[in-house]
Design brief:
Blueprint (H helix, E strand, L loop, with lengths): L2 H9 L3 E5 L6 H14 L4 E5 H10 L14 H16 L5 E6 L2 E4 L2 E4 L1
Parallel strand pairs: 1-3, 2-3
Antiparallel strand pairs: 4-5
Helix pairs in contact: 3-4
Organism: Candidatus Nitrosopumilus salarius BD31
Protein name: Adenylate kinase
Length: 112
């Protein structure tokens, strides 16, 4: 099975989560995957989970994205829940979420 066919098979009507530490190549790989999908007439939404969390946090007065990791874990969890609800409401055929494996916060490493 070619890479193109495999990608199309993998994401048919799905929510995909791409997880990895910063700098590992998630965004680069996702750019290639999104191109394959759009070339094949698929309706794709690509979302950075951290960016979406920051957009939600800005509505509550946060001004610096780096401050997200300094928030108490309970607040991070609340923002994650709100961001996940926004993702769940997406109408695109395929939604790809780009996120880090972990965030280093004052309370230790937390899934991010």
């Amino acid at each position: 099975m070619s890479c193109r066919v495999w990608v199309l098979y993998l994401v048919e009507n799905k929510r995909i989560v791409m997880i990895g530490i910063p700098g590992v190549g998630k965004t680069t790989l996702l750019s290639k995957i999104v191109k394959i999908l759009t070339d094949n007439k698929k309706n794709v939404s690509r979302i950075s989970f951290g960016t979406l969390m920051f957009e939600v946090a800005k509505e509550n007065g946060l001004t610096d994205r780096d401050e997200l990791r300094k928030l108490p874990v309970t607040e991070q969890q609340r923002l994650q829940k709100l961001a996940a609800e926004k993702i769940a409401s997406q109408n695109e055929e395929i939604v790809i979420i780009d996120t880090h494996a972990f965030i280093n916060s004052p309370e230790g490493y937390y899934p991010g």
